[in-house]
Predict the 3D structure of the following.
Amino acid sequence: MSNTPHELAEEFPNDHALLHELKLGNAHFVTLSDRYHEVNGEIHRIEAEVERTSDDYLETLKKKRLALIDEISVIVSQARQSA
């Protein structure tokens, strides 16, 4: 089990500038990004054993993080095509 955070910049290592542009100009991306960071932070705290929870709850959080990264990936991909 890793306790290294999965930051968006790590998930999209070649798209730092694009992520910045999306944060400035796409409200839906900002909402998804904020939610991703909340869920990701909670997962990180659980994996680092700062917080305790059930395995089921941790799995639910990980599924939420995957769903959010999928949605974010679509936006990033569309923005790449538009650039």
